[in-house]
Amino acid sequence: MSLLRQALLALAACVPCGFTWAADLTVMTSGGFTAAYNRLGPQFATSSGNTLTTVLGPSMGKAPEAIPNRLQRGESADVVIMVGYALDELIHQGKVAADSRVELADSRIGLVVRAGQPKPDISTTAGLKKTLLAARSVAYSDSASGVYVEKQLFAKLGIQPQLAPRSRMIERIPVASVVAKGDYQMGLQQVAELLPVPGVTFAGKLPEDVQSVTRFAAGIPSNAQHPAEARQLLDYLASPQVQATVQATGLDSVPR
C-alpha cells in the first residue's frame, strides 16, 4: 500500500460520520435587500458553518457591477438576490435555475433630505407633489425604484417637464450618500437602501396611491459551485423566524 493511500485512509477514519466540509458561498445581492442580508448572513454563517463572500451590484442597468452584467461576463455565484422581475429574466435566459426561485420581501420607495434640513410632509400625494416641485434638485437610483420615478412617478404627479432638468439618476452608489454630501437636495430610493446611510433625514414612504412595490427574490445560478448550501441560505432568508429582522430594515414581509 502506498504512503499516499495510507494517509488518505487514516484521514477518512478520523472524519466523523455525517461530517461535511464548510462551503464558501458567493452571494451577489442588490441594494434593496442588502441591509437585511447584512444582518442575517452572519447568523446563517454561524449556525451553518459556511462562510459568505458578498458581491454588491444593482439588479439591472448598464453599470459593470450590475448582477446580470457580472453573470454575462462569466462571474460565478452561488446565490443572487435581486428585484424579482430582473431575476425572472435571468431564469428565462437559463442563467438561474427556475426551481430555485424564492421570494424574500417587498420594498417601497421613500424620500430623504440632508440632515438638518426641514422634514417635508409627503404623507399625501398633494404634499409629495408640492415637495418635489419646490426641490432645487432630486436624485434617484439606477435600479427598479429609479426607473419607476423617472418613467412613471413624475408623470403621475404631472410634474415631469418641471423635474426633468433638475433630477438625475445616480449610478452604483446609494442615492442618500449624494444627498448627505449636499450634491442634491432630495433623494428617492427604496426605503431599505435609504435608512442605513448617515447624514440624511428620512421623510417617509411615498403615498400608496403613487407607490411602487418591488418584490425582491433570490435564486441559484446555473454555475453555482455549492447549490445544496445555497438552498439552505435561501430557505433561511425566507423563513418566518427572520421576518422581524427583515421588517426592521424597512422592508415588508411577503405574505405566505
TrEMBL record:
Full protein name: Substrate-binding domain-containing protein
Which Gene3D superfamilies does the record cross-reference, listed alphabetically?
Answer: Periplasmic binding protein-like II
State one Pfam family annotation: SBP_bac_11
Signal sequence span per UniProt?
1-22
Q: Tell me, what is one Gene Ontology molecular-function annotation carried by this entry?
A: molybdate ion binding
Sorted alphabetically, the Gene Ontology BP terms of this entry are: molybdate ion transport
| Superkingdom of the source species | Bacteria
Write down the species: Pseudomonas xantholysinigenes
Record keywords, A-Z: Signal
Q: Does the keyword Nuclease apply?
A: no
